[in-house]
Specification:
Elements lengths: L1 H31 L8 H37 L8 H39 L2 H7 L4 H39 L4 H11 L2 H29 L4 H30 L3
Helix pairs in contact: 1-5, 1-7, 2-3, 2-5, 3-5, 3-6, 3-7, 3-8, 5-7, 7-8
Amino acid sequence: MMDFLANSGRRYLNTLGSLGRASVFLAQLLSALPSLLLRFSLVIKQLFSSGVMTLSIILISGLFVGMVLALQGYNALVRFGAEDTLGSFVAVVLVRELGPVVTALLFAGRAGSAMTAEIGLMKATEQLSGLEMMAVDPFKRVFAPRFLAGFFALPALAAMFSAIAILGGHLVGVEVLGVDAGAYWSQMQASVDFWEDVVSGLIKAVVFGFVVCWIAIFQGADCVPTSEGVSSATTRTVVYSSLMVLGLDFLLTAIMFNV
């Protein structure tokens, strides 16, 4: 019993310590962002790594998600003779929920884990210590560019995911299942509201980008500088980011729709 209490207390204190370090790290990270105005080329380089290199998996996944969503939606709507509203169903579900959430999960698995592994290896090989010895701030040179690039990349990737998924829904719904093309697009235009649907999805993507990049960079900078430590930090990035995305999705949905 005493061992159980001691282990529980130790885990609790370790969690509190990690949250404290993450909060201090975020404050330092945000304070380093203004310096990027003079060296925005660093952000452009990281945009390629975190955004462009993630684009292929986003587009392929979006296409198949839209196709599956159209199949499932058609099978449900045809029972009520409402198959002409398939476009509305696909667009609203994607723009409000699936677009930002699935993009964030894919981004955490691909770009977030890459950020953690890269920074963790820099720490393990003492590159970060070398920068500090040369009076180069790692927050301004390493951490902040990756954070800002991921923050910009995720909303753009979420928009591309939703767009290609809607086209995938059109491919299955119109070309395969025979839904009228005019009804597919007109119902979509009539039901999707810019402020209530598009902007709410964009806000979610921005919040997810902020949180995922924060977790990924902090886990890399805070990891144990060994191969096992870097591997564990990469795993924690994917797990923590996924849980935070799903939890924040519920919270933001409840706030936006006054639940």
